[in-house]
Amino acid sequence: MLRRFASNLRAKDASFNAFVSFEDPLNLDNITKGPLNDYTIGVKDNICTSSLPTTCGSAMLRDFTSPFDATVVKLLKRAGAQIVGKTNCDEFGMGSLNIHSIHGPVINPFRVDSRRAAGGSSGGSAAAVAAGLCEVAIGTDTGGSIRLPASYCGVVGFKPSYGLISRYGVVSYADSLDTVGVLAQDVQKVEKVFECVNRRDHHDPTSAEERSRKQARLLALNSIERWNGQSLKGLKIGIPQEYFPSELTSSSNHIISSIRYLLSQLRSLGATIVPVSLPSTKYALSAYYVIASAEGSSCLTRYDGIQYGSRVAPPLGSELTSTSKIYAHTRSRGFGREVRKRVLLGTYALSADAFDNYFLQAQRVRQMVKDDFDHVFSIPNVLYTDSDSASEMKDMEKPEIDGVDVLLHPSAIRIAPRLDEMLDDLRERDILQDYVQDVLTVPASLAGLPALSVPMRFGIREDISNEQDEDWPIGVSIVGQWGTDKLVMDVGKVIE
Ligand code: GLN
């Protein structure tokens, strides 16, 4: 049966373009027995697989197949998952709309005729789940690339705490921000898969230590126990006032009214809702783009056509013979427009003249954003304590009365945009608008916090004959302290 499903996948995907390659159905016969036996899984095409190419949506890696599986892929297979194919994405994860891919844009499956963007960069993963092409999909999230497409496509998208899921075998975009995460139709499936891949990995130097994982888990449990059961009595939810910027309030009234309705429901379940302030939020987007581009420009230097990447040889007989000219030729043809722009931006930010004013300044903002979060959460950040002594743990288990357990805010400032508007005038339109899409997701990325986007399902009409913007899905995000991933997912289960 699975074989038949897999052989039909290509045909089913024709209207979405969510997948870029498909596993040979014959290979799906030897599945290990395990907890994920019922799950078909799509894996984003920037995560290495030995049986399928890993192109990262780039001409540079058009012909690349990894000799090994990424740790996350190994763990999925070990748990009995059936990996059915690789999912489309923006080139090297750089983008918010999945329009920067050599495989073409992904079509949002919510209403195909409407031809809207699926969001990016894990647009293929979100669309594959939304279209029912696979049970679960794995994505990566550097500044919002799981949460934004999840919000646009109406599925659940989870970016775990930085360092919980191994990045070994995941093609780097920006090492200090890259996170592997999970998308599915409901939080329970996300959690089940997360539990199988949430492992320390000595191949990944940024993989979180067992001690920190354990401490944070205990603190989260402590908080969960206060409100466990049907009622949310004892759960304190913070609403960050800076997460309702003018880009959101001026155009998307229905997003705000949906959030209001959700809050009234949570309140009636017993949750305490309090306004909080994260004052550095307004600087987060600029800081993110400086840091991500700087790290991106550095990570991408390996694709020179000699060590890595498809070499594009200069024409025979031309004077382009020196090594640096081979690099230049390869890189200007192998990288797409958006990636070249990021490399230039990042290289500039790291240059001697600009370093202090841009890169260092952005790092300072990053610290301010982290401090803001630590200030509002009742649970302390275990990464900043270097002792595991019993007395310290005991102190940490006592939540500060004033802090909140989780934060809640809209996942995006708008619904999925129309693709023709995004593609037609790629040259002329204000591309900064694409960057603004990430304004609500980047702060949690800068701070490495767990963040879950869950669709707000109410308000979606069944009668779709005359389509309105209000009918399109929009997600709500729950953000927690580092390592409290279970708490975040438990709150998500109440909301979905
Ligand atoms: N849109 C953001 C960027 O282009 C986020 C991408 C991501 O999370 N991979 O950097």
Ordered list of secondary-structure elements with their pairings:
Layout: H1 2-13, E1 19-22, E2 40-44, H2 71-78, E3 82-87, H3 123-130, E4 136-141, H4 147-153, E5 156-159, E6 179-184, H5 187-197, H6 210-227, E7 236-240, H7 246-249, H8 253-268, E8 272-276, H9 281-299, H10 323-334, H11 337-350, H12 355-376, H13 390-397, E9 406-410, H14 419-424, H15 432-436, H16 442-447, E10 451-455, E11 475-480, H17 485-495
Parallel strand pairs: 2-3, 2-4, 7-8, 7-9
Antiparallel strand pairs: 1-3, 4-6, 5-6, 5-10, 9-11, 10-11
Helix pairs in contact: 6-17, 9-11, 9-12
The structure holds glutamine.
Glutamine binds at residues 93-96, 121, 140-145, 173, 292, 438.
